[in-house]
Amino acid sequence: MTLRDSYNRPVTNLRISLTPRCNLSCIYCHREGEKDPRREMSAEEIGEIIAAGADLGIRSIKFTGGEPLLRSDLADIIATVPKGMECSLTTNGTLLADTAFDLRDAGLKRVNVSIDSLDRDTYLRISGKDLLPDVMAGIDTAIDAGLTPVKLNMVVLDGINDTEIDRFLTYVRKNPDLILQLIELMDFNGCPYHSDLSGLEQDLASRSREILTRRMHHRKKYCIDNAEVEVVRPLHNTEFCAFCNRLRVTSDGKLKPCLLRTENHVDIRGKKGEELREMFREAVRLREPFYK
Predict the structure, then answer these.
(1) 66 within 8 A of 18, measured Cβ to Cβ
(2) pLDDT band at residue 94, thresholds of 50, 70 and 90?
C-alpha cells in the first residue's frame, strides 16, 4: 500500500544523502546543514532503509550528497536497491568517467550532473576547482554507459552564469540523451547570487514548440528546437509542495519530511524491520506543505 500523508499526497520517492563530503567548494552550497562526515551511515544501514521503503511502496530512490562518488562502497549501496525500483544519482560529475560503467552494472539507471557553467573560468569561479573537463568527460561516459537521460542541473546565478543559458541549450540540443534543468537558487538570507527565474520561464514558454507538464510537482518541460528544458523554482511554486511525493534521508540517518523544515526530523539511525517502517509512517504523518 502506498503511503499517504494527511493532505492525501502519496509518498513514492526517497532521496538519500550518502555523505556531506564534496570535492568542490561551490559558492552557493549550504550542504543542507550537514557537516560531519564521521556520522555517515554505513552501507548496511542504508540497505535497511531502502528495504523498509520498498516494503512501504517507495518506487524510486535517488542518491545524493555532498558528492556520493566519494564513497568507495557506492556500488555496493546501489546493489541493495530492488530490481523493480528506479535508482538514480545526483553527482557533480568530476569522478563519473571512471565509475559510470561500474555503477550501471550495480543497478544504477540514470544520473543528474550538476554543472553550472560551460566556461572553464566561470566553472572555476563557482566551484573552486578547475575540473570542467572532467565533468564533460563524465557526462560523455554516462551517456555511453546508458545512464540516460542525463539531466544537467544548472543553478542560475545572477551576474555569474545567467548569460550562458542559450549556450547550454545549444549543448543539450546536440544530444537527445541530455535534458537541461535550470534551478532557481533558494534566496536564504539575502543571497547575492539569487536570480528570479519567472521572466526566464516566460521567455522559454514563448520560444517553445511544445510545453509538457511533468507528473511530479507539475513542473513544466519546455521543448525548444530539439532541446528539453525544465525550470525548478520551489520557493515560488506552491505546486512544488502540493504535488511533493518525496521523503529525504540525511547522511547521518534522519528522515526529513520536508526540504524546507529542520524541526521535524525523525531519527532512524540503527533501526530495522517494523520499528523502522513505523518511523517512516511517523515521518509521513509529519508532512505538510511548506507553501499552501
Answers:
(1) yes
(2) very high
The letter for the amino acid at 25 is S
Domain count, the chain: 1
**SS3 of 71-119:** CCCHHHHHCCCCCCCEEEEEECCCCHHHCHHHHHHHCCCEEEEECCCCC
> Cβ–Cβ contacts within 10 Å for residue 253, how many?
21
Angle between helices 132-144 and 120-127 (to 10 degrees): 100
DSSP β-bridge partners for residue 246: 13
Whether the predicted pLDDT of 236 surpasses 60: no
The domain of 170 spans 7-285
In a domain, 292, yes or no: no
How does DSSP classify residue 204?
Answer: H
Please enumerate in sequence order all residues whose Cβ is within 8 A of that of 219, keeping only pairs 6 or more positions apart, or say none. 213, 230, 231, 232, 239, 240
Instruction: Give pLDDT tens digits for 187-203.
Output: 666 678 988 888 998 99
Mean pLDDT of 242-267: 92
